Amino acid sequence: MQEVGPGGRGYQAENQYFYGTDFVQPQPVPPADLRATADDRFVAPRDRELWAQTQKHLAEYGVVVLCALPGNGRRTAALRLLRTVGATDAGPPLMDLEPHWARPDVAKLPTAPGHRYLLDLSEMPEPPGPRFGEALRGYGETGRGADRFLVVLATPQTWQGAWAEATRPFTVALPSPDAKPLFVQELRRRGAGLKAGWLDGAGFKEVWESNPSAEDTRRLARIVQEAAEPDESPLLDEFRGWHKHIDGLLSPSAQGPGEPTLMTTRAMVWAGALLDGGTGRSAIHAADMLLERLNVPRAPLDILSDATSSRRFAAAHLTQHGDHVFHDRTKHDLAPAVLRHLWKEFPTQRERLRTWAVAVAADQGLPEDDARLVTRSLLGLATEVHDHTIIDRIGKDLVGRRRPLAVEALTTAALDPEIGRYVRNRLYQWMVAGKPADELVELVTEICGGELGDRQPAIAITRLARAAAHAQYSSPSMVAAFAKLVEVSPADVSRALKTWLGEQAPKRHALVAFLALASSDGGARLLLDTAREQDGRVRFVRAWQRLLGYDDAREAANAELTRWGAAAERGELPADELIDLLADVYQPELRGDTFGRFFARGEEFLQSFWGKILTKAIIRDDERRKAATE
After folding, report:
1. pLDDT (tens digit, 9 = 90+) per residue, 375-418?
2. How far is CA 430 from CA 91, 423, 477, in A?
3. Nearest to residue 271, comparing CAs of 289, 255, 297?
4. What pTM was computed for the model?
5. CB-based contacts of 394: which residues, under 8 Å, 6+ apart?
6. What is the Cα Rg of the chain in Å?
7. CA-closest candidate to residue 105, choices 133, 63, 82, 78
């Protein structure tokens, strides 16, 4: 089906996200996200009049911008708007839009009639152009007539500037829902509705009066659901992030000869949170690494003159269990609360803290299990405080020392419902922003060839294409990634390849992908399948000819063709079909050193696989020459 965007640009809807330029990829909204928008689950924003106006704005303009900080319930509200606007009897398709662009561009948005789209622009690579707001308004106006609606999520920090002025009539500063009814609804969802009365006491009166955000309210519901007793004090302390306890940890009373200094104790508290449950040796090492970064002397003399490890643990209230150390385990989720407290109380030091924490995970002196604890703590922190820069640090600083751990951590993050969209976008942006380091290319390739490829193959293919533009022609990780994707979703790979090789002069990423596919059994079969129709045959022949014509690709291409020939002679690939195809590949226009495999004599060679290709190629070339002179 051919669709035309607002700017008159046509594209194949099913293939659009494989194009080499900027694009926007529609993805079905996960069913779990939609359940919260059902009539018996949805809790509207606390300003009911504003909510009613927002619904009217979407119906009137075809587009609404919900401007609010992440965590206030804006995504659920957006999905509810889209489910209830326009003609809803047929259950219109609800799609998340994942943009892959250098800057927002309305012309890249899909325009399928009857669809409902959700676009999160909370973080943008660059601000939009000056006419973006006008174009967005025009997109909404044309969409209304086609029963197509769009809701944009934005933040007050990013949705400002001259370009945003045209969107003011349909931009809404969305408040969170009332906390108490949302809390009750969340407990019911978690199967703990009978605990709703636990928080009716006087101690929680201040909480309900403060009307916390949707994110904090859901966190409170989780705390109550996991609690064994209706003890108001610890529930309230945990909800408030154990602030009083943490303030006490960071302000120790015992200081003097033999006791750690204030800074040494604080470093130990923070390192213990980063490595909660890790080995004591790793926690001490992490604390010393932080002190060194703060220019606190940690030469051997300084360390031996300082408090002993056991005193440092005691001052930080860390408990030892065998070789491992923990923050107070009677205080639920204390370690994550310590890290949140660190990030919120010292915002000007976040970059220093990120660099330190990732350096701890990357340190080869840490056992693998301890390094994994660090990355898990950091991913949890990135989600809870919305500090996505942590992801960039993991990608760029961890990959050189512990690439398997970086792959594991970023795969988990890419599939996370909270930060997944941001991480997937970073995987893409890392590959298009200049020349990425080889290690970063390998990282993205391995992520795409792992669980991300299993669960979201179309997403993985788009990022793999970007990585292929910087990969070597014989990259083993690229071969493994495409082999996985062929196994998981051969149709997506075929469509992508059709687009990539459609140009008269295919770009590097197309040829790297083609050769990677040729290097696995499943990929080879897919390439032969695509070559059975005429256009596919042209692409197949052109790709091999280009690979054989480039100095940096020829050796790898010849090696793979040799493997194909041996497989054909063993009956593992269709010999006659290959002979017919490769006879078109080997034409005189190719460089002479490409024909080295044919420099053999005797009848025996002419009857071999490669001899038959040579004979057929000569006959076809002769026929073409005769046809050209007639």
Report:
1. 999 999 999 998 989 999 999 999 989 999 999 999 999 999 88
2. 37, 10, 17
3. 289
4. 0.85
5. 358, 361, 375, 378, 379, 406, 409, 410, 413
6. 30
7. 133
